[in-house]
Amino acid sequence: MSTLPVPQTDCERLIPLLIVNNIPQAVEFYVGKLGFTHVFTWGEPPEIAGVNLGKVSVHLYEGTPADNSVYFVVNDADELYGYHQSQGVDILFPPGDRPYELRDYAIRDPWGNKLSFGHYIQLKTPALPIERVEVPVRLEKRLAALLADLAEHKGMTIGSCLEETLLHTFEVLGEDKGVASPHTKKTHAYIQELKKKHGIDYDTHASYRFVE
Prior knowledge:
Blueprint: E1 17-20, H1 23-32, E2 37-42, E3 48-53, E4 56-62, E5 69-73, H2 77-86, E6 90-97, E7 102-108, E8 114-120, H3 141-153, H4 158-169, H5 185-197
Parallel strand pairs: 1-4, 5-8
Antiparallel strand pairs: 2-3, 3-4, 6-7, 7-8
Helix pairs in contact: 3-4, 3-5
């Protein structure tokens, strides 16, 4: 029997199906309790509905509930956990740092589906012995104030915050993709607020024009 070559298939979307026995109630739960947005409901009576968490789609399908499980990688699992907790959602286990480099937690919906939510973390093990040295650094006053606030926000020393930033900017992501950033979207938004707070109105290349 002849075999065909493996096709070079591109897959742009993956849509999990979660089985529920009441579409309207499920939409109400996912939107009202979990923070999803309602995209569509199809059928009369309803047989399937689409809900989104950010850019990720999930379809709720009418049927006999089963033990299904879906994992969502989000920007801030702790913040979302606080919201779910306030909504009285059935929490299976609270947020924790896992050895697979995600901080996550899990809930169960009223139909028995398990939903896990996590964000990426950097593990602090194994320890990397180093020797630190004093480096004379002079920074623009407003930039130094922002750095101090940012370090405090991230629970780091100013030196550690600089080390993190330097190591990331030394890492090239790929051709025409720039360099890595140590900051999440949420942290970047906070940095924009710090720039306003400290009156930083110059651009990325302003340091070449600094004069004292």
